[in-house]
Amino acid sequence: MVNRRLRLFILLLLPLLGSGSGDVYIITMEGEPVVSYSGGIDGFAATAKDSMEEMDITSESVTSYSLYLTRKHDELLESLFEVESYEKIYSYCHLINGFSVHLSHEQAVALSKSPGVKYVEKDNKVRKLTTHTPQFLGLPTGVWPTGGGFDREGENIVIGLVDSGVFPKHPSFATYNTDPYGPLPRFRGKCEIDPETKRNFCNGKIVGAQHFAKAAIAAGAFNPAVDFPSPLDGDGHGTHTAAIAAGNKGIPVRLHGHEFGKASGMAPRARIAIYKVLYRLFGGYVSDVVAAIDQAVQDGVDVINLSVGPNSPPSTTKITFLNPFDAALLSAVKSGVFVAQAAGNGGPFPKTLVSFSPWITTVAAAVDDRRYKNYITLGNGKILSGLGLSPATRANKSLTLVSVSDVLLDSSVMKYNPLDCQRPDLLNKNLVEGKILLCGYSFNFVSGTASIKKVSETAKILGAAGFVVAVENSYPGTKYDPVPAALPGILITDVTTTKELIDYYNCSTKRDWAGRPTVFQGVASIADGLAPILHNSAPQVAIFSSRGPDVKDFSFEDADVLKPDILAPGSLIWAAWAPNGTDEANYEGEGFAMISGTSMAAPHIAGIAALMKQKYPRWSPAAIKSALMTTANTLDRSGRPLQAQQYSDTELMMLSPATPFDFGSGEVNPKAALDPGLILDASYLDYINFLCSMPGVDPQEVSNITGASCNFARGKPSDLNSPSIAISHLVGTQTVKRTVTNVAETETYVISARISPEIAIEASPPAMTILPGSSKVISVSLTTRWVTGRYSFGEILLKGNRGHLVRIPVVAMGAGG
């Protein structure tokens, strides 16, 4: 019932187990990687053009240059150290020129001083950050029929999932009930063989399956008996995200004899390529993630989904955008690969994002219109609300209540804390049978192994007719989710409601002189909680979703970049699960799970991006991101401005007006994104210009990380042609420009602008006509009227006479000088 993924600080991964002295380091070298190499080194011919999309990665020249870089990495290490004193883990050749290596701190210092070495970074960890959402987003009626036909949604597009692997036998990835998948010659991914079954992981739907654990092995964190040295998902997280993005259409979701709808991915005919980097006990390492991203781009994926984020900031660079993780993603975008990344689960607190860079599409999590509520009716007529995804007690008949504290076996009191009903052997079956068992909610549910699934199993073993789990103490920051159960059951999450329940129970229970119960007279009935309740006040920004503003360095100075970028469903998402997955105790052994997190929001965007890539195969990642953002919704289903879940002063959840720091540009609107009218495009060079324009940036550091130099007149970070405007320190008047390109028919747009009154805003021209394929420049002037110390929020609206509506969010904070 508690999603442990939702509490940023509780979720920190287990300490590094260690395998002796030394650590893993990522080293960046002088010399261009394949993605930007233009030839002329040691006799190698030119290989790269403006984009890696135009390059034949299998050509002899590319292969030769990759081998050349690898050889240079090996020669450097061999020239400095004894072979037995280090272990090279990966050579990175395609997205960055560098390698990862396990060595001592002293060796790392020596390496950093060697000619040709630009950057030495100690490796960090990374951590993990549907049935109804396709309908909620309008895909079956508004998008799928136009996306190459109703049964061709995402056909021949490949989504790379950098996650915890996959359970390949799940019906969400099966091919026996679908139209045959044809060959995909352009995709070059490999399919590992399962060491247990000796069977291939791929089947036509799954076109690639590899695992990356060399850094984890070198660090001593990998246990092959637990972590599976294969793409097999031992966690559940990767299977879930893969199914959200591209799971088969119409898969029945069945648990405990009930069907909870039919699951479909966003792009059900897209192919899936698995790159496993996350493991059960320790999460993963940046070295392995960079290797997976590098391989995914080599293989030819169209979209990458990253429901992972760094565990801590890098130790060398202070700039959030300049680290090996984001540098690899910048090169992936240069190669034409769209990247969706989860925003993080540190909300509702500001500056908790783990996805920073403007070339990445950062996804916040929304609560959609489906809620699972339930109630219990007491014998005194009181109705108490709670969560319970389970059937009703038979014929709504009132049954006797018994508290776990009154049915303990004598020997259990001293040895255990049995009040959370996790062990049936500690309770008296004769006193429980046929009754409703009242259990406590201990801290073991929050940070231990207790689960509602085990409570249900305990009640079933003891012959109980149902169960109640009551929260007596407040656990700030805890999010309670309903969990499917075979028996009637309910979780009471409100402490005040729990007190009403306990008071009723105590008043209706007769006891002897020693306090032992003699007669149980309290009765109750549990209602049917299987059917969801649909709300018009949706979507809402989920309380756990990380919030902006974005930061430009790890001293948390604000960046002139709006993050997150977009909002997508991420709360209570039904999707496939690995039966051997251990990430969620409530779903161990199950084939489906309903869980929450920005991890679930990101693959919604990855799948929708695949649909867009299918329709517009030549669009850049920036163009796809622009279409998603400028068409997003800022109103809920009832027509009111979006709201965000927040904590009140008393730690209770409340709703407040949402801002772009909560939802970015708004909630994704797939139908509108496929016909945006205008796009704001950006190239690799534009992103380099952005990095070079940051105040106080060291041009040498930009060169060290990206291989590109800052030999030009610098502008401001807000000059980047992004589909949003963010100015964190507005002094006087600042004018920014945005270039829009028409991707539809000739259309005339009327342009308007608005923002909070402490900032003046003006957009010009007031109107313009744009021909197909043509571009026009919009100027936006922002002026500080008075300084408040708070951000102002606004927007630029371009309303076309053919029905297109393009919206560019604006955030700015006036400064005194």
UniProtKB/TrEMBL annotation:
Peptidase S8/S53 domain mapped to chain residues: 154-636
Signal peptide as annotated in the record: 1-22
InterPro entries named in the record: Peptidase_S8/S53_dom, Peptidase_S8/S53_dom_sf, Peptidase_S8_Asp-AS, Peptidase_S8_Ser-AS, Peptidase_S8_subtilisin-rel, Peptidases_S8_3, S8pro/Inhibitor_I9, S8pro/Inhibitor_I9_sf
Domain Subtilisin-like protease fibronectin type-III: 719-811
Annotated catalytic residues: 163 (charge relay system), 237 (charge relay system), 599 (charge relay system)
Database matches in CDD domains: PA_subtilisin_like (cd02120), Peptidases_S8_3 (cd04852)
Source organism, top-level taxon: Eukaryota
Pfam families given in the database record: fn3_6, Inhibitor_I9, Peptidase_S8
Single Gene Ontology MF annotation: serine-type endopeptidase activity
Cell compartments where the protein resides: Secreted
Record-level GO BP terms: proteolysis
Family as reported in the entry's similarity comment: Belongs to the peptidase S8 family.
Domain (Inhibitor I9) ranges: 24-127
Keyword list, A-Z: Glycoprotein, Hydrolase, Protease, Serine protease, Signal
Matches recorded under SUPFAM superfamilies: Protease propeptides/inhibitors, Subtilisin-like
Record's protein name: Subtilisin-like protease
Keyword Hydrolase annotated: yes
A GO-annotated cellular component: extracellular region
Annotated organism of origin: Platanthera zijinensis
Main location: secreted
Taxonomic lineage from the root: Eukaryota, Viridiplantae, Streptophyta, Embryophyta, Tracheophyta
